[in-house]
């Protein structure tokens, strides 16, 4: 088994960040890793921030990823990724969804959505951009955006050896298995 790896997934309530983390954790446990996962739901039901932290390796003692410790940051929403960029290691990677969800202050006109969010992330870290929302919509189910991002994460982390289709079959509701497997595979192919 390898050293402990740290994955930080960030997004907005309703994007499926937690489901993606549960699928990821189930796959890693099935592959024999010790896995710890934690979730933070800040007003998630109302479109607030959601972060999940997944740590895996031969032995993991804590589920918490501190600042400067994440090997990879997966941004389900661009601004949330920029906000938590300080949790990334100096040589860490970012997978960012080219997708914006305006927060309440932006919707009410009190603030503007920051300009060039993805470019600001790219200035600070090795970044792979993916249009997960567009891919999910092309598949006919916008809700699979989270599993598209999971596929991109798996590719970026080199976790291809795990039977993710089997993990998806065991984790999602039966009627959503096929579309989620398609979404996952599209996410893998979207990362070069």
TrEMBL record:
Q: Does the keyword Protein biosynthesis apply?
A: no
List residues of the Pyruvate/ketoisovalerate oxidoreductase catalytic domain.
13-188
Q: Which keywords does this Swiss-Prot/TrEMBL entry list?
A: Oxidoreductase, Pyruvate
A single MF term (Gene Ontology) = oxidoreductase activity, acting on the aldehyde or oxo group of donors
Query: Which SUPFAM superfamilies has this protein been placed in?
Result: Pyruvate-ferredoxin oxidoreductase, PFOR, domain III
Task: Tell me if Oxidoreductase is a UniProt keyword of this record.
Answer: yes
| Top-level lineage group | Bacteria
- Alphabetical list of Gene3D superfamilies matching this protein: Pyruvate-ferredoxin oxidoreductase, PFOR, domain III
> Sorted alphabetically, which NCBIfam families does this protein's record hold?
PRK06853.1-5 (NF005325)
Name under which the protein is recorded? Indolepyruvate ferredoxin oxidoreductase beta subunit
**Species assigned in the record:** Paramaledivibacter caminithermalis (strain DSM 15212 / CIP 107654 / DViRD3) (Clostridium caminithermale)
């Amino acid at each position: 088994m390898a050293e402990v790896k740290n994955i930080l997934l960030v997004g907005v309530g309703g994007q499926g960040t937690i489901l993606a983390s549960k699928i990821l954790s189930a796959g890693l446990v099935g592959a024999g890793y010790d896995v710890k996962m934690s979730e933070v739901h800040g007003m998630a039901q109302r479109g607030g921030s959601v972060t999940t932290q997944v740590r895996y390796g031969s032995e993991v003692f804590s589920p918490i990823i501190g600042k400067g410790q994440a090997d990879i940051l997966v941004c389900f929403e661009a601004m949330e990724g920029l906000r938590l960029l300080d949790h990334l290691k100096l040589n860490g990677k970012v997978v960012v969804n080219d997708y914006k969800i305006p927060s309440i202050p932006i919707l009410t006109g009190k603030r503007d959505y920051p300009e060039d969010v993805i470019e600001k992330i790219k200035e600070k870290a090795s970044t792979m951009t993916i249009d997960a929302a567009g891919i999910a919509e092309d598949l006919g189910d916008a809700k699979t955006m989270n599993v598209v991002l999971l596929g991109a994460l798996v590719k970026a982390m080199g976790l291809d050896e795990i039977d993710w289709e089997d993990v998806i079959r065991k984790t999602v509701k039966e009627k959503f298995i096929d579309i989620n497997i398609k979404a996952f595979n599209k996410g893998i192919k979207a990362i070069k």
